[in-house]
Amino acid sequence: MVVRVLLPMAPAARRRTTAGLERLGAISDDRVVPVRALHTVGDRLWVVRDLTPGIALRRLGTVVALTPGQVAAIGADLLGALASLHQTGLHHGAVHADNVWVGPDGRVHLVDAALPRPGRAGATADLLQAGSLLAAALGSQSPAPQPGSSPAGLLVMPGAAQRHDLLAAAHALAGGGGDHLGAAAEAAGRAWTAAAGPLGTELALATARAELSTFVRRLSSAGAAEPTPPRPA
Question: pTM of the prediction?
Answer without folding.
Answer: 0.79
